[in-house]
Design a protein that fits this description.
- This protein is an all-alpha fold.
- The two termini are 26 Å apart.
- Helices cover 75% and strands 0% of the residues.
- The chain has one domain.
Length: 251
């Protein structure tokens, strides 16, 4: 396991050494979303009975930060290693495809979860958010960060240029995130968009995570956790098969 622990430590240091950029900046961005949306919509919107709109926003913004940063860590690391050619120093050691995958996966999950905790702690300075079901929140955060970290590995393997990775983020990750209920309940949407949201896995990540804070959600937390966990497992198996085949890494 020496190779795995070394690769994980390298990936951890990769974002921790520049934590102002990789951790503090996303936390600040989330706080800006919170302040702007809360200021403009707080007196006009009540999503759940008895839940202030500012408090409603906090779990969504925290999960959005987890997802975006977990994806960014694994995808950018692999793509940059391929572009600079130093990926060879990861491929030459006798690392199994499982060690390779899990090291990138856990480092990306760590960054996403650290940023998510940072957003939650910072938001507590502006609004009091309850947490009656921490187990549900933690389970959804772990499964969701794993899903996006695995997706980031696939994007990093597939992308050969910065614009290809940017297209993946701008045309897939960002739209699905903003259409997942971060800023609203899907019950406020027209029927077509409500149906569309049920095919969006990120909706279940945010909705189940939010249940941990308010005990209220648009769908059952058991359904959300089942879908998110199944998606994570399926995506992990696909990622492992790509790494084992050497697709766009060894060939």
């Amino acid at each position: 396991m020496t190779g795995f622990s070394t690769l994980f430590y390298k990936e951890w240091l990769r974002f921790w050494k520049v934590k102002v950029q990789t951790i503090l900046a996303p936390v600040l961005t989330a706080l800006l979303y919170l302040l702007v949306f809360a200021h403009t919509l707080r007196s006009h919107v009540e999503v759940y009975p008895g839940v202030e709109y500012t408090a409603f926003l906090v779990p969504g913004l925290a999960m959005m930060a987890v997802l975006q940063n977990a994806f960014a860590n694994s995808s950018s690391s692999l793509m940059q290693s391929k572009m600079t050619g130093n990926i060879v120093f990861v491929l030459l050691p006798p690392l199994s495809h499982r060690e390779f995958f899990v090291a990138y996966l856990l480092a990306a999950m760590a960054r996403g979860l650290v940023v998510g905790v940072g957003v939650f702690v910072a938001a507590m300075a502006f609004v009091d958010v309850p947490l009656p079901h921490p187990g549900w929140a933690l389970a959804h955060a772990i499964a969701a960060s794993g899903f996006m970290a695995a997706l980031g590995v696939i994007a990093g393997i597939q992308s050969e240029k910065i614009d290809q990775l940017a297209a993946f983020q701008n045309f897939i990750i960002l739209p699905l995130t903003f259409l997942s209920g971060v800023f609203y309940s899907i019950h406020s949407l027209p029927p077509f968009w409500q149906t569309f949201s049920h095919f969006n896995p990120i909706f279940y990540m945010i909705d189940g995570f939010r249940y941990g804070f308010f005990g209220q959600a648009d769908v059952s937390p058991w359904l959300s956790l089942t879908i998110v966990t199944s998606s994570f497992i399926g995506l992990s198996l696909l990622t492992l098969s790509l790494i084992r085949s050497g697709y766009k890494l060894r060939h």
